[in-house]
């Protein structure tokens, strides 16, 4: 199915100059970029984004991590993009992530795992609405 998903380069990914390489992987795979912005995230937005994690012991550290610098957030579109971007990103815990995945190639610790990708179609729809206004998602075409 033609889908959209939310991918975010977390503050460690921006600080380590990995934004270009991460975008390149999605472009190379054939997905279409339809939204992109860089922002310093508020705790308010994060508490919505991570609403299922608010009670976890690592949540305060997660907030500190995610507000430690700007993030680059993107919407990618394409066939099965939700599941395929999870595969490209790799396991949440970099210890388990395969080489060839973004986390498997660029990270060693779960609390600095470089990138986020929505975990389901419903999650993607929820997160896209949370991070983007509809007018900022562009419907463009060339050859797909
Ligand atoms: P992500 O899957 O993008 O969204 C939830 C985030 O919470 C996850 O990436 C990690 O950054 C973080 N996280 C999940 N589990 C842990 C944990 N046990 N310790 C620290 N951070 C975690």
UniProtKB/TrEMBL annotation:
Q: Which residues bind ATP?
A: 10, 58, 86, 92, 103, 113
Give the domain of life: Eukaryota
Reported EC number(s) for this entry are 2.7.4.6
Catalytic activity of the protein: a 2'-deoxyribonucleoside 5'-diphosphate + ATP = a 2'-deoxyribonucleoside 5'-triphosphate + ADP; a ribonucleoside 5'-diphosphate + ATP = a ribonucleoside 5'-triphosphate + ADP
Q: Where in the cell is it found?
A: Cell projection, Lamellipodium; Cell projection, Ruffle; Cytoplasm; Mitochondrion intermembrane space
Return one GO MF term: metal ion binding
Task: Give the UniProt keywords, A-Z.
Answer: ATP-binding, Cell cycle, Cell projection, Cytoplasm, Kinase, Magnesium, Metal-binding, Nucleotide metabolism, Nucleotide-binding, Nucleus, Transferase
Per UniProt, residues of the Nucleoside diphosphate kinase-like domain are 2-139
Q: Where is the active site?
A: 116
Name any Gene Ontology BP term: CTP biosynthetic process
Q: Which cofactor does it need?
A: Mg(2+)
Q: Write out the coiled-coil annotation as residue ranges.
A: none
GO terms for cellular component: lamellipodium; mitochondrial intermembrane space; mitochondrial matrix; nucleus; ruffle
- Topology with respect to the bilayer: Peripheral membrane protein
Keyword Repeat among record annotations: no
Location, primary (coarse class): other
Q: What is the protein's known function?
A: Major role in the synthesis of nucleoside triphosphates other than ATP.
Record's family?
Answer: Belongs to the NDK family.
Query: Know the name of this protein?
Result: Nucleoside diphosphate kinase
* Source organism of the structure: Austrofundulus limnaeus
Lineage of source species: Eukaryota, Metazoa, Chordata, Craniata, Vertebrata
Task: Supply the gene name.
Answer: nme4
Entire protein: shown range: 48 to 191 of 198
């Amino acid at each position: 199915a033609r889908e959209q998903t939310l991918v975010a380069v977390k503050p460690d990914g921006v600080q380590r100059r990995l934004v270009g390489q991460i975008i390149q992987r999605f472009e190379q795979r054939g997905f279409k970029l339809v939204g992109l912005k860089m922002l310093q995230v508020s705790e308010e937005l994060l508490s919505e984004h991570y609403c299922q994690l608010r009670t976890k012991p690592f949540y305060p550290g997660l907030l500190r991590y995610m507000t430690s610098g700007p993030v680059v957030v993107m919407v990618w579109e394409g066939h099965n993009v939700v599941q395929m971007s999870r595969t490209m990103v790799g396991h949440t815990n970099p210890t388990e992530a395969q080489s060839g995945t973004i986390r498997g190639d660029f990270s060693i610790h779960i609390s600095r795992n470089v990138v986020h990708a929505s975990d389901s179609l419903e999650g993607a729809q929820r997160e896209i609405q949370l991070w983007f206004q509809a007018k900022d998602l562009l419907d463009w075409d060339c050859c797909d």
